[in-house]
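Q: Entry one of two.
A:
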Amino acid sequence: MSVDMSRGPTTERKDQILQAAIELIASEGSVNLSMRALAGAIGMELGALQVHFRTWEDLLHALVDFISEAYDHAFEELAESSRSHGPLETVRFLLYDTPGDATLQADRLFPQLWAMAQVEPVMQSLLDEIYCRYLDMLEEAFAEAGSHTPRTAARRAGREALLKMVKQSGVFRSEAQLLILGKRHERRSHDADRGDTCSVK
């Protein structure tokens, strides 16, 4: 993500700190993100970091907003870049693409965020929103490809892609953890189906 210089030096510095937090999570794992670790990673004193983010909760909420904005941009680009994108290209978006021109390192970051979501409800809300938007795009791609059951096809493909990505990441090391993750995903999908949409507008 290129920093918008018109936003001012304080916002620019916050964006740099949040980008460093993403890089720390992607390279070291979500369990290694703390205010002190982040300050050390960017060569700041903890007190200087707390000028920008007073508490862990402030940092976490800002990180969620930053990631959400990058994914919004990436979803818009995916939708605009090829109206003819098919299911395969949409699945690849989750598995391999890096939203926001290298901002997120999604293949490594997304599974780590999922691990964080087990203890941070605000992160779970973010992931639900991202995943719902992804499923909506996937459903549309299946419909355009002529599927008679695009919603079912989207959920199946989305689940398989997500579990593959998480398994490859090594974040969830045991089959039992992956099974729990799959069951949680199935429950959310079922709840979304009862509401007839997964979209978070």
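Q: Entry two of two.
A:
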Amino acid sequence: MDPQRMPGIRPGRLDEDTLAAHFSDLHAPLTPHEALVAADRCYFCHDAPCVTACPTSIDIPLFIRQIATEQPKASAKTIFAQNILGGMCARVCPTETLCEEACVREAAEGRPVEIGRLQRFATDAMMAAGTHPFTRAAATGKHVAVVGAGPAGLACAHRLALKGHDVTLYDARPKAGGLNEYGIAAYKSTGDFAQAELDWLLAIGGITLRTGARLGAELSLDALRAEHDAVFLGIGLSGVNALEVDGAAREGVADAVDFIAELRQAQELSALPVGRNVVVLGGGMTAVDAAVQSKLLGAENVTIVYRRGQERMSASGFEQELAASKGVTLRFNARPVAVLGNGAVREVEFEYTEEGPDGLTGTGETFCIPADQVFRAIGQTLGDVPAGLTLERGKIRVDAEGFTGLEGVWAGGDCATGGDDLTVTAVAEGRDAAEAIHRALS
């Protein structure tokens, strides 16, 4: 970044104390008394709809009952048996559209049991004690390669190690964790929790971590298949959809995922440059995270612009309300047609849109929003895929158990066809693929 060409983008818009307050926990952890009160609201339904709504099928009534009877570590074991990344999921899951939306008390009163915060209370208690709830089985002599140390890969590696298999866990980045380490808003996961959770997970034993190893560069799928008894791919989505408008390459235009990753790895938030006028293109949680964090860093005007109507945004209603509460402006039914400026971005021109029988069309009416920084949050792509794998809708095609159709190779998480692109879904897919691999190796 050339500060002379882009004077509107600069670091230090806010002092350290203000930044520390802005990036503190979005939801404060429950105290023991608060947890008991929150747990007491649960009806402990026999046929609980919240369990069905949870992608990892955690026995929610049981873990809440264990909290209510003052057994937080037993509660944590109930959670971790289904979701070994239950601590992170408690922080980042859109519970408002999953378990809490299905809660009986939500339907009756409009106020669900605080399942996410109760899950965090239990999992934090066990992790703080430094104990691991499971014991590794006797070694099987089988060796599995897990490529990608994000939520799917970590869940798969842990379950395989638990079964007694040896696992080598590969990741392209310098640090493991994937989305949890590089892609989560800093105010949702504070205090380097992602790495603490990683270290705790690896304590099961039997997992060797190798970072700086990228599939297609340092790693060959053919070689991995030859050297291991099975391979799991949890490589995520490494590419970003291009912004195909005039001026898209101007200085000041960047990928939202890169901005979020840079913020997550920053040692000093005051050193991060941010624009005075920021525009974010997209309608998902990445767009919201980029926009909210721009505002928290001190941007004066931040606007999310989404090409369809508000009801079509993939970001939940809670996320949209969060953005608005932080001072972010949300505009709908508009698509970018040009990024204007002299070298660096100065403003973005948009065209109003409408949806009809022929899909999304422009109305011909345009408007401009001033901008010295623009973030693309318009979807991610898989990138290059090794030969032998079949693509479907831009992802690796898998069956219900994550099998790719290529002998000895399974896949899960964002890189594979399956469920929603959520941390909790990736955990479920990694866990279930590990069970399938275990059956195949046995």
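A: Comment on entry two: Residues 58 and 81 are 8 Å apart (CA to CA). The mean pLDDT is 95.
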